[in-house]
């Protein structure tokens, strides 16, 4: 299983970005995909996840601003990020997990300028 992310970049505060994660390989039908982020010197933290059972989980800091969605048939996950703030600046990692494995993408940088 491989994860490929795209969509990061530089944006001004208040702007929007959409991240895309495409999963390839042997996918288990019951799984969860999501996004985490990390800044230097801090632990990786949850941003949002969505399971094939449509269970959603968001960090409090992004509720109402970020939306995770999935195209299950294509094993693609999106993270729509609106009203971005400077403290959203981080490397964003896509995550895939099922009962067999827990996989990470290579990460994509999101930088929000004030």
Please describe what this structure looks like.
By secondary structure, the protein is mainly β. It has strands at residues 2-6, 9-12, 17-24, 32-38, 45-51, 56-58, 66-71, 76-81, 90-97, 102-104, 108-113. The chain starts with a strand and ends with a strand.
Class by alpha and beta content:
mainly beta
Share of residues in strands: over 45%
Mean pLDDT: 95
The count of helical stretches stands at 0
| Main sheet attributes: strand count, strand direction, barrel closure | 7 strands, mixed
Low-confidence stretches: none
Secondary structure layout plus pairing:
Blueprint: E1 2-6, E2 9-12, E3 17-24, E4 32-38, E5 45-51, E6 56-58, E7 66-71, E8 76-81, E9 90-97, E10 102-104, E11 108-113
Parallel strand pairs: 2-11
Antiparallel strand pairs: 1-3, 3-8, 4-5, 4-9, 5-6, 7-8, 9-10, 9-11
